[in-house]
Design a protein that fits this description.
Blueprint lengths: L4 E6 L5 E5 L6 E2 L6 E6 L2 E4 L2 E7 L1
The structure holds zinc ion (ZN).
């Protein structure tokens, strides 16, 4: 299984971030601090960001 990373943009401030698709911790935006992703059943649940691209 490939380790996928997701290129996302924060819904609040629009900054780009790269997050692991199966992140096991909460990921916050480095610019505005909004929650981008929370862990859910072994994968990242994207709550505050929009996926631009999947990186493999
Ligand atoms: Zn942000």
């Amino acid at each position: 299984m490939a380790k996928n990373f997701l290129k996302v943009t924060c819904k609040d401030c629009g900054s780009e971030a790269t997050i692991f698709s199966r992140a096991t911790s909460v990921i916050s935006c480095g610019v505005c601090g909004a929650t981008l992703s929370t862990p859910s059943g072994g994968k990242a649940d994207l709550v505050g960001c929009t996926v631009l691209e999947t990186l493999e």
